[in-house]
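Hey, resending since the last one bounced:
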Amino acid sequence: MEKLLALLTIGFGVLCLLFLMLTVAAARKKRILGSLATLLCTLLCLSLAVLSGTIAVATQGYRALTHEEVAAVVEVEPAGEKKIMAHFKFADGRQASYELAGDSVYVDAHILKWKPVANTLGLHTFYELDRVSGRYMNIEDELSGERTLYSISRDKPLDIFNLRRIYPFFSPLLDCRYGSAAFINADGPATLEIRVSTTGLLIRKAQ
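The structure tokens again:
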């Protein structure tokens, strides 16, 4: 996916330069209609190069989803009274450990669904795990107990999830963006799989 977007950016960039050269040549020969036509093609290719480049940068950290897949494997173990130690192994190879306060492991994610016109470019459902926190089973504990919350997304200069909210020109490409979350009780040592499907997030114990 990243390679495809990079190739599209480079391809449109090259076409932009070629049409720009043709525009300059036509202007020197005082071919007004020819220069206007090539100028429009130049601007079109420039816009497409900027758009594909922006999507390429803004979707870094997101993973394409065409079926249910494992986003992370988590080894959990008790770490004291209402404390959980969670060791994450993410699908992109990253590893991290978090001490969570509560009875359950709670994970949420960003989900992005593209429209059919974007599917033709190879853009399908994208997801990125966003946060992990501890969750108490008892509401009173949730209100008064210690809270733990960690970001598990990758740092990036642009985020397509936020760009869709701010800029309307992504509307023709992005169908919808939404959050999905799941939690599972961690009352003993276990290996958990955080899975993402086209309908959202789920957590289950590894078989």
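The helical segments are 2-28, 32-58, 116-119, 139-144, 160-166.

Sorry for the duplicate.
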